[in-house]
Specification:
The chain has 16 helices and 16 strands. Helix 6 (78-94) packs across helix 9 (147-156) and helix 13 (283-296) packs across helix 14. It has two domains: 3-254, 3-Layer(aba) Sandwich (Peroxisomal Thiolase, Chain A, domain 1), CATH 3.40.47; 263-412, 3-Layer(aba) Sandwich (Peroxisomal Thiolase, Chain A, domain 1). Helix 14 (314-328) links the parallel strand 10 and strand 11 (333-335). It is globular. The protein has 415 residues and is α/β, with parallel strands linked by helices.
Length: 415
């Protein structure tokens, strides 16, 4: 492989794993976001009572105890548990046999914004109410952001590079971009990459309320997340995990793997603007997107679909939509699946990249749920009301995060 061909390598997506509020498992999640499920905004009175926002989009019907076993569960906070469950599905979907794979050539890269924050919160209460001798010795291994990646490595026996990414809400997308770079470098043959998050934290939600970042539609939480809508008022926190198995194309071909899609390009940038506000001109996310298109050697006119960051916050949606129109024009069909999954923060990019792969496979763009009246300032074609059939061979995933962390991926129907 020449240096130039290595730099242009398109990673083969051979497996997907999804644990989301829209559905658990790839098939259920896809049915959920394409109109065959209901948005599930759930009041969390035990943890969030009395807050202006006391609800989340949660993962229901998931028996983690049966899936993982009590001993393993006791060493993992919920975000790590969700990561392990998604990783198992992704590896099985890829047809990989962990008992015979070349374990030193398998890497894991998982993004998370907050790690095990809920466990940290609970232990802070224990310290305050019961004293230092009652604090769990497992605090550090359960709460650090790297614990999802390490838990997946231990569960699957992956002994290649193990990396954790924490770039706020772009973490999962950056993790997949990092996986592409690892494969291009020749450091590994297989990478399990994406994001995981579960932050039902009173402290975090209270802060988000003070920031006016989250929706306060307590009377109708299932309709609260409404990206690109004229009446949007903030995001709704979700939980979940989305992981992809990426391989060097030669490795996938040699074992006869089904290639679901390709990750052809990646771009990242920093706004260098503000701690919680994006660059109002969208210059940072535009640089990330143009870098990804150039990396993939794809023209803007070739992009047929965008799974947008689309958080349902007033300024972010407008900034992103204006940027997308500036770079890609009128053609792409745009959606925000956060309306069905909630904003899973560091896991969002992993979940949404997996959904973009499914959109390419099915040639179907999910509708943006809860979008009733599009903001007249939004200049892009946002799919609303029902999923739309379309023909496209190239799609884009964009992500933006607090601190100005931007990332974009270019995905192709074939590798």
């Amino acid at each position: 492989m020449t240096a130039r061909s290595r730099n242009r390598l398109t990673a083969a997506v051979t497996g997907l794993g999804l644990v989301t509020a829209a559905g658990v498992g790839v098939e259920a999640a896809w049915r959920g976001v394409t109109g065959h499920g209901a948005v599930k905004g759930v009041h969390r009175q035990d943890e969030l009572s009395g807050l202006p926002c006391d609800f989340m989009y949660t993962v229901d019907d998931l028996d983690t105890k049966s899936l993982l076993g009590v001993p393993a569960m006791r060493m993992m906070d919920r975000f790590s548990q969700l990561a392990v469950i998604a990783a198992r599905e992704a590896v099985a979907d890829a047809g990989l046999d962990t008992s015979v794979w070349e374990t030193d050539r398998v890497a894991v890269v998982i993004g998370s914004a907050h790690g095990g924050l809920p466990f940290y919160d609970r232990q802070s209460t224990v310290l305050a109410e019961k004293g230092a001798r009652r604090v769990s010795p497992k605090l550090a291994p359960m709460t650090t952001v790297n614990s999802a990646a390490s838990s997946v490595c231990m569960d699957l026996g992956a002994r290649g590079p193990s990396l954790s990414v924490s770039t706020a809400c772009s973490s999962g997308t950056v993790a997949i971009g990092t996986a592409l770079q690892l494969l291009r470098s020749g450091a590994c043959d297989v990478v399990i990459a994406g994001g995981a998050e579960s932050v039902c934290s009173r402290l975090l939600i209270a802060s988000a309320c003070q920031m006016r970042a989250v929706s306060t539609r307590r009377d109708d939480p299932s309709a609260a997340c409404r990206p690109f809508d004229a009446d949007r008022d903030g995001f709704v926190v979700g939980e979940g995990a989305g992981l992809l198995v990426l391989e060097r194309p030669e490795h996938a071909a040699a074992r006869g793997a089904r290639i679901r899609a390709g990750v052809a390009g990646y771009g990242a940038s920093s706004d260098a603007y503000a701690a919680v506000a994006p660059d109002p001109d969208g210059n940072g996310i535009e640089r990330a997107l143009r870098t990804a298109l150039d990396d993939a050697d794809v023209a803007p006119a070739d992009v047929g679909h965008v799974n947008a960051h689309g958080t349902s916050t007033v300024m972010n949606d407008l900034i992103e939509a204006t940027m997308l129109h500036r770079v890609l024009g009128d053609r792409p069909l745009v959606t925000s699946t956060k309306a069905m999954t909630g904003h899973a923060l560091g896991a969002a990019g992993g979940i949404e990249t997996a959904l973009t792969v499914l959109a390419l496979e099915h040639q179907l763009v999910p509708a943006t749920a809860n979008l009733r009246t599009r903001d007249i300032r939004i200049p892009i074609d946002v799919v609303a009301k029902e999923a739309r059939v379309a023909g496209f061979g190239c799609a884009v995933k964009t992500s933006m995060g607090f601190g100005g962390h931007n990332a974009a991926l270019v995905l192709t129907k074939s590798c």
